[in-house]
Design brief:
657 residues, alpha/beta, eight-stranded mixed beta sheet, binds 5'-O-[(S)-butoxy(hydroxy)phosphoryl]adenosine
Length: 657
């Protein structure tokens, strides 16, 4: 390509996709939603549609108004009171589902455990009591930094039970990233574990918490779940650190679900934006729960009495919040939680889990699918995958090859594949097929769900009916973010200022002749690495934070496995010299500041960075360099020589990789 637009040539190819797949007759007949009229009904009166969905929940006091919309600020189900943990637990236990399995847990080392709805409720009631004894009350925010073990949903639901918000920080984040999030949310209590298992190695979570607290004086107490025990002993500070099991064994009282307002803060979840400071995305109770429950049932065609559902994401991201914890539990589903990586002890771990638990619904990220493609189908062939009946994809654009491979080899050609587009901010799935209705096309998320308004617009905000542009949302939706914690200005600015009356998602998209939507990836300075959102600016500031670095520019380059890979162009201070060791040191520094997911794959040392005459770093051009594309016109550059130099360095570096 001579012209370097944002679109990636690999993606351009999928717009020529002509294959399509109708749901089988059998699937259609048994589907929860089989009548396409739902789109029209919902469209005619979307408030009524959501009112009906909200009424599937248990309300202590019914709401008297569906929506109050002062763009960009929304309130849903006003006047109503409810409790998320009551909806996820007590309601089912009271309805005879006490002994139904809520979760099967599989630890990475191979330990197994399960928890019924009755047991989960018991544990949550007790832990809510523990939190109260540590001074947590309605309106507080509790930080949770844990591995994928059952105590993680327990801790979240215990917060919800009290009307306190949780702020889950992904266990892969560093101490410094954790500290920033604790400070922003002012969390006085941190719930963690001594460690977690990842690829056979202990991730020292409690050590990271200790480190984080050095710069988070707000923390008063730390609750530590023993997960790894002797494999990694931890130091406990008296009157600050308590073992979960000790506190739980002292509990005699049980805390009932506190009645909270529909708009009570349910959780904060930090996500990367285009600046170095992560945004605390706010989600509230009634609207969020309404939409996650509806979408979980509709998109995955959940038959709660027979399905075994497995979302192979981490609860530390929004996918886990909505589709491991709140959606499935609100629907009384049986789910699987797996702690570790797909290649431990061998590359067939996922397939063995599916066989063992007879998983019927699998929800995974394209990056995992592409990794499995690379590993080869012999790992799948060792296991019986015939229990599967539906496959979902989330987190990044799925290329048609990966989609087809998923359908053929995992789904054995009989499972509908639903590619689901949404974001931390949207709270729930927004664009996706309905598996009993929609004709799917490999690589397309197809259409907005019923009651959702999604449109592609051009630069001027005009609707595009055929071709490419920016993805926008045209109406409020119940699980929409209520704002950015402590920063209403940034909320308005980031999402509601680019286009009049529209939510700007930050994604590029195309519409085809049949109205299908094809998501093209981010159009802002946000990268998507293995389905994880990483900000270029955040990585740049981590690099510049290192004493040897004068300047840094970071771009996401296409990568066959991870979607995008982080490439950093670094100018060192004149007293420093470039070397492979220096590169390693910088990568380690980024891991320490943010977390291993943000480590640049390649660091290119350069004397200078290409800048426009007004001094702006030309990231687009660097991306082209990183991807080895033809550079087109560079005459707006201050010093075109810089590009030449960078090109040569990049060529050297890529060949080494
Ligand atoms: C960004 C949101 C949604 C939960 C996981 C990520 C990208 C997400 C898709 C998809 C193409 C997708 C977008 C979006 N994305 N799903 N099906 N097709 N792109 O949540 O970290 O908030 O990231 O992920 O670029 O803006 P997140």
């Amino acid at each position: 390509m001579t012209d370097s637009t944002n679109t990636n040539p690999a993606i351009e190819n999928y717009l020529l996709e002509e294959r399509s797949f109708e749901p089988s007759d059998q699937f259609k007949q048994n589907a929860i939603i089989k009548d396409a009229a739902i789109y029209e009904t919902a469209d005619k009166d979307y408030l009524k549609f959501w009112e009906q969905q909200a009424n599937q929940l248990h309300w202590f006091k019914p709401f008297d108004k569906v929506l109050e919309w002062n763009l960009p600020f929304a309130k849903w189900f006003l006047g109503g009171t409810l409790n998320a943990s009551y909806n996820c637990l007590d309601r089912h236990v009271n309805n005879g589902l006490k002994d139904k399995i809520a979760y099967y847990f599989e630890g990475e080392p191979g330990d197994k455990r399960s928890m019924t709805y009755g047991e989960l409720l018991d544990e949550v009631e007790k832990f809510a009591t523990v939190l109260v004894s540590l001074g947590v009350k309605k309106g507080d925010t509790v930080a949770i930094y844990m591995p994928m073990i059952l105590e993680l949903p327990v801790a979240m639901l215990a917060c919800a039970r009290l009307g306190a918000a949780h702020s889950v920080v992904f266990g892969g984040f560093s101490a410094s990233a954790l500290s920033d999030r604790i400070n922003d949310a002012e969390s006085k209590v941190v719930v963690t574990a001594d460690g977690g298992f990842r690829r056979g190695v202990v991730v020292p979570l409690k050590d990271n918490v200790d480190e984080a607290i050095k710069s988070s004086p707000v923390v008063e107490s730390v609750v530590v779940v023993k997960r790894v025990g002797d494999k990694h002993p931890v130091t406990m500070l008296e009157n600050r650190d308590y073992f979960y099991h000790d506190l739980m064994s002292q509990v005699t009282e049980r805390i009932g679900a506190v009645e909270v307002d529909s708009e009570n803060l349910l959780f904060l979840l930090y996500t990367s934006g285009t600046t170095a400071k992560p945004k605390g995305i706010m989600h509230t109770t009634g609207g969020y729960l309404t939409q996650v429950a509806f979408t979980h049932k509709a998109v995955f065609d959940l038959h709660a009495d027979s399905d075994i559902y497995w979302c192979a994401a981490d609860i530390g991201w929004v996918t886990g919040h909505s589709y491991i914890v709140y959606g499935p539990l609100a629907n009384g589903a049986t789910g699987v939680i797996y702690e570790g990586t797909p290649d431990f002890p061998d590359k067939d771990r996922w397939w063995s889990i599916i066989e063992e638990y007879k998983v019927t619904i699998l929800y995974a990220a394209p990056t995992a699918i592409r990794t499995f493609m690379k590993w080869g189908i012999e790992y799948l062939k060792k296991h019986d995958l015939s229990s599967l009946r539906l496959l979902g994809s989330v987190g990044e654009p799925i290329n048609p090859e990966a989609w087809m491979w998923y359908r053929e080899n995992v789904g054995l050609n009989k499972c509908p594949v639903v590619d689901t587009w949404w974001q931390t901010e949207t709270g729930s799935i927004m664009i996706s097929p309905l598996p009993g209705i929609t004709k799917t096309k490999p690589g397309s998320a197809t259409f907005p769900l019923p009651a959702i308004g999604a449109e592609v617009v051009d630069d001027t905000g005009k609707k595009v009916t055929l071709g490419g542009g920016y993805l926008t949302l045209t109406r409020p939706w119940p699980s929409m973010l209520r704002g950015i914690y402590k920063d209403p200005e940034r909320y308005q600015q980031t999402y509601w200022s680019r286009f009049d009356q529209r939510y700007f998602a930050g994604d590029g998209a195309k519409v085809d002749e049949e109205g299908y939507l094809w998501l093209l990836g981010r159009v802002d300075d946000v990268m998507n690495v293995s389905g994880h959102r990483v900000s270029t600016t955040e990585v740049e500031s981590a690099l510049v934070d290192h004493s040897a670095v004068a300047e840094a520019a970071v771009v996401g380059a296409n990568d066959a496995t991870t979607g995008q890979a982080i490439i950093a162009f670094v100018t060192l201070k004149s007293t420093e010299s470039a070397s492979p060791e220096k590169g390693e040191e910088l990568r380690a520094h980024v891991a320490e500041k943010i977390g291993p997911i943000a480590k640049p794959k390649v660091i290119i040392f350069t004397e200078d960075l290409p800048k426009t005459r007004s001094g702006k770093i030309m990231r687009r051009l660097l991306r082209d360099v990183a991807e080895g594309r033809n550079l087109g016109d560079t005459t707006t550059l201050a010093d075109p020589k810089v590009v030449e130099e960078i090109k040569q360095k990049a060529a050297l570096n890529t060949s080494e990789d």
